[in-house]
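Lay summary. Proteins are chains of building blocks that fold into shapes, and those shapes determine what they do. In this project we predict the shape from the chain. Here is one chain we studied, written as its sequence of building blocks.
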Amino acid sequence: YDLIFRKKSISDITTLELVRLYIDSFSGDLIIGIDETTKLLIKKAIDLAVLEEMSVSEALYYFQKQFRFESEYRAERIVRTELIAALNAGSYQAAVDLKLDFKKIWISAKDDRVRGVRANSKYSHIGMNNQEKSLNEPFVEPKSGEKLQYPLDRSLGAGAGNIINCRCTIGYKF
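And here is the predicted shape, written in a compact code that computers can read:
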């Protein structure tokens, strides 16, 4: 399940700029155990992944070469979280900026690793799959009650359990 960012129209150029603004403003903020220099390098690596239209797998390969994390799982978690968060944030902001009557749709990865598939999960992104909301109405995660404007959104106070390693994305329809 790889997301690939493709430029297709004028509105996507705006989306790219919004994605890059998100990376500059927020990427790396949730990563613990790194210094400011490493955080800056991670931001640059995520920005390059977006500019080069890398999939999550390609970005992970690049990331591992640059940073040589001891844990491949940690590297994958960072890349997935930062890249998908930036893409979702840019996409959402571009949709809002268009000022059209869109509905947003929560789209989960629909596999056995999605939050909520296991009964003991503290969160349920599978329960949010295919939910439709107006652009300004937040999604409400059913188990925690946390609000998110889009998957991996933390602007409304969602905690790390709803964000870290999430593979969900946002879709739109008129």
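What the prediction tells us: The helical segments are 10-26, 36-51, 56-67, 72-98.
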